[in-house]
Amino acid sequence: MVKQAVDSEVIRVSARVRGVVQGVGFRPFVYRLAVSRGLIGFVHNDGRGVVLEFEGPHDSVVAALKALETEAPPAARVEAIEWVEVTATGGRTFEIADSADEARVETLVSPDIAICEDCLREMADPGDRRHRYPFINCTNCGPRFTIITGVPYDRPRTTMAGFAMCPDCAAEYGDPADRRFHAQPVACPVCGPRVELRGPGGESVPCEDPVSEVRLLLKAGSMVAVKGLGGYHMACDARNSNAVQVLRDRKTREDKPFALMAADIETVERFCEISGEERELLLSPKRPIVLFRKKGDELPEAIAPNNRYLGFMLPYSPLHRLLFGGGLDVLVMTSGNRADEPIAYWDEDAYEQLAGIADYFLTHDRPIYRRVDDSVTRVFRGGEMLIRRSRGCVPTPVPLPKEYGENALGCGAEVKNTFCVTKGDRAFVSHHIGDLINPAAVAAFEEGVEHFKELFDAEPTVVAYDMHPDYFATQYAEKLTGVSKVPVQHHHAHIAAVLGEHGFEGPVIGVAWDGAGYGPDGTVWGGEILLAERSSYERLGRFRRVPLAGGDAAVREPWRAALGYLTETFGFQSGTFDSILPGISGEIREAVVAMLDKRFNVVESSSAGRLFDCVASLLGFSGGVNYEGQAAVELEQRADPRETRHYPFTVTDGEPFEIDWRPAVAAVAEDIRAGTDRTVISARFHNTAARMVAAAAERAREITGLSSVALSGGVFQNITLLDRTLPLLERARFDVLLHKYLPPNDGCISYGQVVAALASL
Ligand SMILES: [Zn+2]
Ligand SMILES: [Zn+2]
Ligand SMILES: [Zn+2]
């Protein structure tokens, strides 16, 4: 504490601020703070954050110290302020000193930040020199992570290196009182990047004002690829149902919901219900895609087929903001990619990859260094539940439970891969890399790991990875030399992630439900109840195993999984399945039943995700899935929220104990035969799954005496399930731990791996 003193007594304090405080306008903020209070002293960056000294009347100094946290710039994240009182030196000025030795930088790299109010105002002002300039930014906003090529963060180590500042920009950049002081991407129409319109083959289309031209093209129904912060989007007018359908057709076989971008929050409110928490997320500087409950049907169904939710974001770059107006208020802004490939972010790749999809390209000459997808999130019970943690969130670190002397690399899983590099007590979980079955995603993984090691000056000595021998990430880890290698079971990693995020040692009852993960017993796991600590686990229970004909084929075609469940429930009498899997031709069905009967090319799985697939198939999902979890997502959308009944199931004794779903599958089949409404069946099934979680937790409590339950795995992205599960667990007096910073899907695995590996050392 500053000693109790007379209000006007002059004191001097020396303080260090840690967190995301570089590249976010922190020094000019401190400067203004000091000058406005008549304080003298200095502020500068060093390798570990911002260092400052304030000198002046006691009360003013205390107020300024407090304001460091409460009034920090929107993009800053103050983690800690440490200060001591020092001897007053006297003087007249407050100075922004040159940065101390920045050779080894430990400060955090900022994520990309949505355009701020001040820049929006200037951009709209016809008298401003950046009027309608699509690359306007300042210390509080603009691209960061996507343009940073190295550290320390300054202009030569960004993709702005090729743009020499004009005298006006240089003056702003050099003036401590200016809101662009040391804003590395500072630019203007004279010296900065420019937009350009290009045709379907990437050929230049000369025009006076490419942005206005693109607005007209969109209004007329064209598909335009727009270069954003982390990659290209495909855009079209979301009110034009023909355009939306054309885009869907051109992107081929896609049912995945399209993300939308609206001019402002009022527009989003016309189409969706928005709570206070959702509003806050939508407007936050990370500007994620937020999933909202749809209201009305003013927008075309093809935007999000069979879905009660719409994913909306607001314009986050000035270029996006300029696309609206002139009758355009909602745009489809979906990933600029073809089918399952990662989004295009290099111009030449985009022209090639999006040929046949884009009628035009709205591009520019500021290169994107990192491909970063939009983050996707939603609100559950008043808190944030991430689905994809990427642009705007990364590379903000996720805390580790404690400071570790060794740095670790977590290689992640196969689908929705992220990797993670740790240093001290921080884990730098990467942006969404994608599915590591794709060469472009593999390249992004390999380059990304190297980039993170450099950015955070962390050379891992411990490498944690999945046990699945066929995963690319596993093979990558196995090839590394001179490091300790720690394989981590997939579902243990899920639960370890929850434990790590809460700084909780365990033990805990871990319920890890997903599609599939490698089981050390040679079967596929996915409906697991674990006794878990950060460093170890024991399998207490699991779903009854189901035979899956054709292995992965049963993931792509859920009806194959359904036949596994049906034959286990009803046996192999022919004709049993005619009425309950009507969409599948008799011949194909019989062939799969024969495979199951002979146990030919059959994989045994305790997956929870496949059970959802099975019920979705029985309720009419007859096609193949073209995005992960599609059948389950559509099943969830159907559930009638008013239905309270559930189906029977049993939890059998044994080590591990087993959740036997056969009575539930039989009851679903019975309801279908009886002509029960499908929305009711879906709801009853969700109620059943919730009761399965609760019953399994109860059984685990009998065995272990524990009352804390951690939930993870892609299945728990299903908020209908969560909504029905949590009250059951709470009523039974369980403490429930959910993810805090990461998604429940495999995006959390890399972090869970390092948490487990570091704890086991
Ligand atoms: Zn700004
Ligand atoms: Zn300029
Ligand atoms: Zn998983």
Would you give an account of this structure?
This protein has 761 residues and is an alpha/beta fold. It folds into 5 domains: 10-96, 2-Layer Sandwich (Alpha-Beta Plaits), CATH 3.30.70.100; 109-193, DHBP synthase (Alpha-Beta Complex), CATH 3.90.870; 195-376, DHBP synthase (Alpha-Beta Complex), CATH 3.90.870.40; 392-505 and 744-760, Nucleotidyltransferase, domain 5 (2-Layer Sandwich); 541-737, Nucleotidyltransferase, domain 5 (2-Layer Sandwich). 31% of the residues lie in helices and 22% in strands. β23 (508-518) and β24 (524-532) form a beta hairpin. Residues 490, 494, 514, 517, 713-714, 746 line the site of one zinc ion.
The low-pLDDT segments are: none
- The chain-level structural class is alpha/beta
Number of domains: 5
Quaternary state of the chains? single chain
- The fraction of residues in strands falls at 15-25%
The total of helices stands at 22
In the CATH hierarchy, what is the architecture of the largest domain at level 2? 2-Layer Sandwich
What is the C-level CATH assignment of the largest domain?
A: Alpha Beta
What is the total tally of β strands? Answer: 31
Considering the protein shown, what is the CATH homologous superfamily of the largest domain? Answer: ATPase, nucleotide binding domain
User: Mind telling me the C-alpha Rg?
Assistant: 28 Å
Mean pLDDT reading: 93
Q: Based on Cα principal axes, name the global outline.
A: globular
Helix content: 25-40%
Distance between the termini: 38 Å
CATH topology of the largest domain: Nucleotidyltransferase, domain 5
Biggest sheet statistics:
11 strands, mixed
